[in-house]
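Reply to dn_fold:

You asked what the input looked like. This is it:
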Amino acid sequence: MDRSAKYWSDILTAIGEIEGFVADIDTLNVYIRDVKTKRAVERGLAIIGEAVGKLTKERPDVPLESAQAIVGMRNRLIHSYDNVDDRIVWEVVRNHLPALKVVAQRQLGGS
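and this is what came back:
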């Protein structure tokens, strides 16, 4: 059974949650000091990475150039929690999630 739509939906849901978590945070320094938000964002990114990993196993032709980097981020968050760079997480949230959101929306037939 092809579950790719579910994985894309999970990715979109996690992105929406992350967007909500950081909506009122405008700088890296504020983000770093907000431990609850950091943990929530990290969990959302881990979910995205897990969904992308499952998606690429089910659909190796998935149109996502950054799939390996996304799964790598998930692995670092889960297995190397003591080696997570908040600056990189912040950059991913600010600069890379919007593009992933567009791809996911396209894959689900949305705008």
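The longest helix spans residues 35-58.
Hope that clears it up.
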